[in-house]
Amino acid sequence: MKIAVCPGSFDPITMGHLDIITRASALFDRVIVLISINVAKKTAFTLAEREALTAKAVAHLPNVEVDSFDGLLVEYVRARQATVIVRGLRAMSDFEYEFQMALANKRLNPEAETMFLTTAAENMYLSSSLVKQIAGFGGNITGLVPACIQPEIEARFANPSR
Ligand code: PNS
């Protein structure tokens, strides 16, 4: 059984993430979408909220599960006997950051490979930060996030103190 972990902040999950997860689900027996802590980011949604939003967005994919973890990614990967870490790559601007993470993870867990899937062209510009910025100013995020979670994201930004 080939298990892949697709880690990220998912704050919140976007159509770009969903495209990568969907394509990974066709390549592996099981895909675990792992909501993780990026120490460099202050998130709009809690870990539990991000997990719930992501679970809703991938509910239609039978071999995909969602989990969260507040430790080192490689430790989770090892514990779940996964062999691949899947990340999406947008532009060259992602490359240095992704390359550094892949090399660090390889050093910490040489048995796990990082695999990059290139973003779909229509999602090149898309990021969770962009979604939050648009929603924060009351803009239209239709088509940028999965439709089933759009109302929850809009509600958060309509009432940011919640
Ligand atoms: O969506 P992001 O914020 O680019 O994802 C980055 C993430 C969460 C995958 C990365 O920060 C991570 O793996 N965090 C878990 C802690 C860890 O293992 N850090 C070392 C990574 S080399």
Folded structure, characterized:
The chain is of the alpha/beta class and 162 residues long. It has helices at residues 15-27, 47-57, 73-79, 92-108, 128-136, 150-158; strands spanning 3-8, 30-36, 64-69, 84-89, 113-118. It has a five-stranded parallel β-sheet with strand order 3-2-1-4-5, sandwiched between helices. The mean pLDDT is 96. 4'-phosphopantetheine binds at residues 7-9, 36-38, 41, 72-73, 101, 104-105.
Bound molecules: 4'-phosphopantetheine
For the record, give the distance between the C-alpha atoms at the N and C termini, rounded to a whole number: 42 Å
Task: Give helix % range.
Answer: 40-55%
Unreliably modeled segments: none
Number of helices: 6
Q: What letter string, H or E per element, gives the SSE order? A: EHEHEHEHEHH
SSE inventory with pairings:
Elements: E1 3-8, H1 15-27, E2 30-36, H2 47-57, E3 64-69, H3 73-79, E4 84-89, H4 92-108, E5 113-118, H5 128-136, H6 150-158
This protein binds 4'-phosphopantetheine.
Quick recap of the structure?
The chain has helices spanning 15-27, 47-57, 73-79, 92-108, 128-136, 150-158; strands at 3-8, 30-36, 64-69, 84-89, 113-118. It is α/β, with parallel strands linked by helices and 162 residues long. The termini are far apart.
